[in-house]
Write a structure and sequence with these properties.
It contains 10 helices and 11 strands. By secondary structure, the protein is of the alpha/beta class. It is globular, with a radius of gyration of 20 Å. The chain binds flavin-adenine dinucleotide and NADP nicotinamide-adenine-dinucleotide phosphate.
């Protein structure tokens, strides 16, 4: 009997049918509007935590529907994780929300983005400021040991309309506080170095209010027992809707921080969590 090796091999490892195909390894739905998933990582893909790539699926006409997605996993992870909105009738996410383990997605392996550690001057405290799925790049940066090498404290402020929309971020932070790798590197005090400030705006929860309001009123500094932001010590990364980005930029500038870039590091950087109407 001759063994058809191509068939045996295909049974173990399905032939890749899409260009730049990666295989979905797990999917978790967090609400009617949010889900996360993990895919295989191309062996050649190197990225800096906080960057985004283009991912997608073939459209009905065979042409790929591609969208920008922040990589939510840190750069040391063997797989890639993404955290996604489900837009009703969205060209990509109406299909993407149906993916199952074993399915393939398209992933263009060209990471880019402004939310990288090198785009900021050294400082003492790093503020991650996000609304909605704008948490995704910080899900990567919070899990990267280099963030804690560079900053004594990391403060994750995440605001959503409802408490349910905070769940992915909340579980991630809770798991991180007991993370073996970070605990090994930074000891028992690690949990104190990552401060989490989740708020809601349209549903009662322990902490309420927009990020902009909690910064300008000083409430977040009082609640976390921190001094107000200053240019010598505080650095920030911002990721949310266009309206949020515009408003929070003005707040940060009010504290004396200046917007930087990869080529010109300063005290804060901004990236859109999605393209849409907003101001
Ligand atoms: C740099 C960058 C990084 C991004 N990273 C992510 C990410 O990590 N996760 C993610 O879910 N999306 C992310 N997006 C948005 C993403 O590119 C798509 O817009 C989203 O997947 C919806 O695709 P769609 O084709 O279904 O709808 P689209 O036609 O792209 O969007 C339709 C409308 O839905 C709204 N919308 C789109 N995305 C979002 C969102 N994330 N949150 C709230 N409202 C939204 C907007 O009003 C938009 O006009 C990012 C966008 C940019 C520019
Ligand atoms: N998430 C939902 O339940 C929902 C429902 C229907 C439609 N949509 C649509 O989907 C899109 C995205 O929704 P989303 O919930 O991810 O984003 P979003 O509407 O931008 O709201 C996310 C969070 O950011 C806050 N925020 C919005 N603009 C801000 C600003 N300028 N400064 C400070 N904080 C700001 C919101 O507070 P406020 O609540 O105070 O605005 C909310 O807590 C929007 O176009 C929205 O109209 C969302």
């Amino acid at each position: 009997m001759t063994l058809d090796l191509s068939v045996a091999d295909a049974a173990v490892k399905p032939a890749k049918t899409l260009p730049d195909a990666q295989t979905v390894t797990s999917v978790q739905h967090w609400s009617d509007t949010l889900f996360s998933f993990r895919v295989t990582r191309p062996a050649s893909l190197r990225f800096r935590s906080g960057e985004f790539v283009m991912i997608g699926l073939p459209g009905d006409n065979g042409k790929p529907i591609l969208r920008a997605y922040s990589i939510a996993s840190p750069n040391w992870d063997d797989e890639l994780e993404f955290y996604s909105i489900k837009v009703p009738d969205g060209p990509l996410t109406s299909k993407l929300q149906l993916i199952q383990p074993g399915d393939e997605i398209i992933l263009r392996p060209k990471p880019v983005g402004t939310l990288v550690l090198d785009a900021l001057l050294p400082g003492k405290r790093m503020w991650f400021l996000a609304t909605g799925t704008g948490l995704a790049p910080f899900a990567s940066l919070m899990r990267d040991p280099e963030t804690y090498e560079r900053y004594e404290q990391v403060i994750m402020m995440h605001t959503c309309r409802t408490a349910e929309e905070l769940t992915y971020g909340r579980e991630l932070v809770e798991n991180l506080k007991h993370d073996e790798l970070l605990g090994e590197i930074y000891g028992e005090d690690f949990a104190k170095r990552l401060l989490y400030y989740p708020t809601t705006t349209r549903e009662e929860s322990p902490f309420m209010g927009r990020i902009t309001d909690n910064l300008t009123s000083g409430k977040v500094f009082e609640d976390l027992n921190l001094p107000p932001m200053d240019v010598a010590n505080d650095r920030a990364m911002v990721c949310g809707s266009l309206a949020f980005n515009v408003d929070v930029k003005a707040v940060l500038e009010g504290f004396g921080l200046r917007e930087g870039a990869n080529s010109d590091p300063k005290e804060f950087v901004v990236e859109k969590a999605f393209v849409g109407e907003g101001v």
